[in-house]
Write a structure and sequence with these properties.
Blueprint: E1 8-20, E2 29-42, E3 47-51, H1 58-65, E4 73-78, H2 87-91, E5 94-98, H3 110-121, H4 125-138, H5 154-166, E6 172-176, H6 184-201, E7 204-208, H7 212-218, E8 221-226, E9 229-235, H8 236-243, E10 247-253, E11 266-272, E12 275-280, H9 287-295, E13 300-306, H10 310-320
Parallel strand pairs: 3-7, 3-8, 5-6, 6-7
Antiparallel strand pairs: 1-2, 1-4, 8-9, 10-12, 10-13, 11-12
The chain binds adenosine-5'-triphosphate.
Residues 17, 19, 32, 34, 52, 54-60 line the site of adenosine-5'-triphosphate.
InterPro entries: AAA+_ATPase, ABC_transporter-like_ATP-bd, ABC_transporter-like_CS, ABC_transporter_ATP-binding, P-loop_NTPase
Keywords: ATP-binding, Nucleotide-binding, Transport
GO molecular function: ATP binding; ATP hydrolysis activity
């Protein structure tokens, strides 16, 4: 049996930018190593998060994957094609959404823009009609089909951008900050759409975002990049587990909290009015044992166990690898 090749393969990818010091053509050149030999593969049908702090090299990698930029060395295959060598065949197989800039034409209506893309990609009329109707339903575009892109709200424009990226049924969708600047309902709509797309069409998705809720909602796997290198590549839950096993217990008392001892593995980190926050390592002291220990205290009113927020996990992860 032939094992299907991954949708995206990246091997030892390097990109070095050469910039002139001081901007003058006579100045000395300086090298910026944006990608320092990254490797990863995304299997067909997976949603992979691609994250990292500012300047990590994400945009550079995405530009190479989209065929916009040539690497200095290394190998990339997207659906068995080398993006910068087979540009025309490559763009027919991928869809790209850049949250920060539009791919549509400002002066055309959404419908006209989709028709232009039909001609550019050579999508047959039947398939175009089916895709247009499906995307208009799923992304709620009917009311804005005749409106020019210039007049759209950011949320409407992002929905139109996603439709434009998918009108030709690409196998791979690259999303670069697809929820940036959107309000909460629009973010939820984009996430729900991407989830359905993967389930119904089996599209492979590479998702770059600084919104960790996008990652938590969508990515089965997270590739973390920093200083042009892969820092981690694992299921999101594994990243959470290796980064931080810490849990938090908030304890409210009816009056002023008493002073109390804690078992090993737990420590008091905050006292505020009637509440005390305790952080603990569940490998040393399981939550039920800690709760039982506190249950004996007088004046106990309420207990809440929580995990650190996802932003905190990622911030600590970046900080641990900052050198
Ligand atoms: N055209 C360019 N010329 C020179 N240096 C560049 C160029 N584009 C990016 N760089 C540099 O390469 C490094 C990686 O940048 P890149 O834009 O890929 O990072 P990023 O992870 O996308 O960051 P962000 O989250 O801020 O968008 C940075 O040091 C950046 O200054």
């Amino acid at each position: 049996m032939r094992i299907a090749s991954p949708a995206i393969e990246v091997e030892n990818l390097r990109k070095i930018y050469r910039v002139r010091e001081g901007g003058s053509w006579r100045g000395r050149t300086r090298e910026i190593v944006a990608l320092d030999g990254i490797s990863f593969a995304v299997p067909r049908g997976q949603i992979a998060g691609f994250i990292g702090p500012n300047g990590a090299g994400k945009s550079t990698a995405i530009k190479i994957l989209s065929g916009i930029l040539r690497p200095s060395s290394g190998l990339v295959r997207v659906g068995d094609l080398i993006p910068w060598e087979n540009r025309i065949a490559h763009v027919a197989r991928i869809g790209v959404v850049f949250g920060q800039r539009t791919q549509l034409w400002w002066d055309l209506s959404v419908g006209e823009g989709l028709a232009l893309l039909r001609d550019i990609y050579g999508v047959e009329p039947d398939r175009f009609a089916r895709n247009r109707a499906r995307l208009a339903d799923a992304l709620d575009l009917h009311a804005i089909m005749d409106q020019s892109v210039r007049q759209l709200s950011l949320g409407q424009r992002m929905r139109a951008e996603i439709a434009a990226a998918l009108i030709h049924d690409p196998e791979v969708l690259i999303l670069d900050e697809p929820t940036i600047g959107l309000d909460a309902p629009s973010k939820l709509a984009v996430r729900a759409f991407v989830r359905d797309l993967r389930r119904e069409q089996g599209t492979t998705v590479l998702l770059t975002t600084h919104d960790m809720h996008d990652i938590e909602a969508l990515a089965e796997r997270v590739i973390v990049i920093g200083h042009g290198r892969i820092l981690a590549d694992s299921p999101f839950e594994a990243l959470r587990a290796t980064t931080l096993s810490e849990r938090r217990l908030e304890v409210d008392f009816i009056g002023t909290p008493p002073v109390f001892d804690l078992p090993p593995g737990a420590k008091e980190t905050e006292r505020d009015g009637r509440s005390v926050t305790i952080t603990f390592d569940p490998r040393q002291i399981p939550a039920p044992a800690l709760v039982a220990h506190l249950g004996a205290l007088a004046g106990l009113d309420d207990l809440r166990i929580g995990r650190p927020a996802i932003e905190e996990i990622i911030t600590r992860f970046y900080a641990d690898h900052a050198s």
